[in-house]
Amino acid sequence: MIRLGAILLVVLVFSQVSCEGGSMQRQGGERLDLRSLPEATWERLAAKRIYFGHQSVGRNILAGMADLLTENPQIRLQVKDVADSAATGGSLYHWQVGRNGDPASKLAGFAGFMDGGGGEKADIAFFKFCYVDISPRTNIETQFAAYREEMTRLQQRYPRVHFVHVTVPLTVCQAGLKAWAKGLLGKSPDGAEANINRNRFNDLLLQEFGKSGTVFDLARSESLRPDGSQEVFTSNGKRYLALFPGYSSDGGHLNEMGRRLVAADLLRFLANLERAAGR
């Protein structure tokens, strides 16, 4: 009876929080192939002034972008530090925005940059929160309301700018014996509770802005494995996205494979955004 009880307890734990894969159709090789878009589309993108505020995961993505731009000479987009933005012509200008762990500072930093002259120059503008900006204790509704209010104000003040919204990046969901042991102690595996909150924020972001076609779903990009399946975990019967472990060496930042795939998704998203706008 004791052994049966222990087995049932383990089954119960894994029914509450467990990592798994789900079937998807997009393949890793297809994601890296940027030749499917016509050269005219890439030329249109390269002529735009794009502003991107970020922290460390953003640096990972830009490193992956540098790799892809070298391999794809048809994409003439230049990536520069925002200090060089006085130059004429298009480029992707980036800068370190706010402080990690303080999402309000990132929102204020981005808004301050736009109101300080960026809004008059930009064709496309966006920033991203980091995974450390959302913890299990974050009030998601309050944080999203502040984001929505500020981004709506910016869009009204600078109507010609394409403001892009980026879902919050994720972390790896702990699995294996350690996850089992924590479950037996009534604890959640590492990353589960914070990832649930990140998924909740991302759901609100997609509900609010998804239909506009201006959301780059970074979280989804991080969860798509090279074989097309998706990294997810289940908690209390609901599925949530997680970072595929093969894309990270520390559970949060992107390694070479992860940064290249996410960068390819971002480049394709930006190119399609401009093509759809026909500007």
The fourth-level CATH homologous superfamily is SGNH hydrolase
What would CATH call the class? Alpha Beta
Q: Give the ordered list of helices and strands.
A: HEHHEHEEHEHEEHHEHEEH
Overall geometry comes to globular
Distance between the termini: 70 Å
Tell me the helix content: 40-55%
* Counted beta strands: 10
Strand content: 5-15%
CATH architecture: 3-Layer(aba) Sandwich
Pick out the low-confidence regions.
4-15, 21-26, 176-187
Query: CATH topology, what is it called?
Result: Rossmann fold
Provide the structure class: alpha/beta
**Major sheet strand order:** 3-4-2-5-6
Tally of individual domains = 1
Biggest beta-sheet profile = 5 strands, parallel
* Helix count, DSSP H or I runs of 4 or more residues: 10
What are its keywords?
10 helices, three-stranded antiparallel sheet, 279 residues, alpha/beta, Rossmann fold
How would you sum up this structure, described in words?
This protein has one domain (18-277): SGNH hydrolase (Rossmann fold, 3-Layer(aba) Sandwich), CATH 3.40.50.1110. Helix content is 48%, strand content 15%. It has ten helices and ten strands.
